[in-house]
């Protein structure tokens, strides 16, 4: 409750900054179209010999991420819950240099998660990208009693997938977070009260725990905010506002390809090039320019000048390690035997 109130106050204070940044974001595509500004792209790495998994790759950022990683030569496995959309995604991604296969994975069903993990084999890179923001506060995940649908799909089911996967030595795990994590309340993790924001904070805690060695020695986790991206995820915006919103997002938000830039950098950059925080763990990354410090800096994570993957400020719970331990315990209780 206190966290939500704090977020409400912060948002009110940041609103003027966000409004100005919205205008800046509208100007950027114009500057790019006239050649005055170049859109940044992640550097091309040679990923031949690497095996990569991208969840939720049938649309949006996941599809664009898979396509870019395949162009860099990786063998890419894309997942989706709908066979027809999955087949179409494999076709789209198959234009790259690397081999591409599709695997059915429905994060609403734990049996699907377990069956998918059993078929998958070993990976060098896993991008936990799948997500929904259909925030119906009362909707419960069918296989996770007492846990919200959104938190279950966005986090718990992908936590289970990760626990079941075979990760090669030195493997990298990219965890899709969001600016929304700033309003999360870690006390509600794993319950019906946990929604999109909590699922995205959980992704940051997961990435940091992976890098600390909690999921196996030598692994690296990187949390990313892809930025405000014009994708299907916004289809749940309330109807009367939806047409207006769709127009604004088409003009001011990043395209899915631009939105994949941060995930691709996190997945493909050599470990030595990943920015680190003071504690030595890989930094939370976002694609927008942001002042290095100051109370308003998280406003720049909503919308700002698209500048490519760069370290951003993650709002961690004060008792991060204890909150993470409570989260793993809640996940273990919800999924049962692993
Ligand atoms: N777009 C943004 O502005 C934004 C900002 C911050 C963070 N993000 C994060 O970026 C990630 C990608 O989002 P996006 O914008 O690319 O959204 P999107 O276009 O809606 O794509 C989401 C992907 O997740 C899949 N998915 C959703 N529910 C699933 C389920 N129950 N089981 C299996 N797959 C499921 C979708 O599959 P279907 O095609 O079957 O629905 C789709 O492939 C998400 O984690 C999101 O939270 C996005």
TrEMBL record:
Iron-sulfur keyword on record: no
Keyword Oxidoreductase: yes
Top-rank lineage group of the source organism: Eukaryota
Keywords: Oxidoreductase
Name of this protein: NAD dependent epimerase/dehydratase
Record-linked InterPro entries: NAD(P)-bd_dom_sf, SDR_fam
Pfam families, sorted: adh_short
Cited PANTHER family: PHOSPHATIDYLINOSITOL-GLYCAN BIOSYNTHESIS CLASS F PROTEIN, PHOSPHATIDYLINOSITOL-GLYCAN BIOSYNTHESIS CLASS F PROTEIN-RELATED
């Amino acid at each position: 409750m206190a966290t939500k109130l704090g977020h409400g106050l912060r948002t009110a204070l940041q609103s003027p900054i966000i409004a100005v940044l919205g205008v800046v974001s509208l100007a950027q595509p114009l500057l790019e179209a006239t050649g005055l500004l170049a859109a940044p792209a992640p550097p091309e790495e040679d990923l031949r010999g690497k095996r990569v998994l991208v969840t939720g790759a049938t649309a949006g950022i996941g599809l664009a991420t898979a396509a870019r990683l395949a162009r860099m030569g990786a063998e890419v496995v894309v997942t989706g819950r709908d066979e027809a959309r999955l087949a179409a995604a494999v076709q789209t991604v198959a234009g790259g240099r690397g081999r591409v296969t599709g695997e059915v994975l429905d994060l609403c069903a734990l049996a699907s998660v377990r069956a998918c993990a059993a078929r998958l084999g070993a990976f060098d890179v896993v991008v936990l990208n799948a997500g929904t923001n259909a925030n119906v506060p009362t909707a419960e995940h069918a296989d996770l009693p007492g846990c919200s649908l959104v938190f279950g799909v966005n986090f718990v089911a992908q936590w289970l997938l990760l626990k079941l996967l075979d990760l090669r030595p030195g493997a990298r795990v990219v965890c899709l977070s969001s600016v929304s994590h700033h309003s999360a309340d870690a006390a509600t993790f794993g319950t019906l009260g946990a929604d999109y924001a909590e699922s995205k904070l959980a992704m940051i805690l997961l990435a940091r725990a992976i890098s600390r060695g909690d999921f196996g020695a030598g692994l690296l986790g990187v949390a990313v905010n892809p930025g405000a991206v014009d994708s299907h995820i916004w289809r749940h915006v309330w109807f009367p506002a939806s047409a207006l919103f769709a127009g604004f997002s088409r003009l001011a938000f990043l395209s899915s390809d631009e939105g994949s830039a941060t995930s691709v950098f996190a997945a493909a950059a050599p470990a030595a090039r990943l920015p680190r925080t003071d504690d030595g763990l890989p930094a939370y990354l976002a694609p927008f320019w942001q002042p290095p410090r100051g109370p308003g800096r998280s406003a720049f994570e909503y919308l700002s000048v698209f500048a490519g993957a760069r370290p951003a400020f993650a709002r961690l719970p004060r008792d991060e390690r204890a909150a993470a331990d409570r989260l793993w315990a809640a996940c273990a209780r919800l999924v049962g035997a692993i």
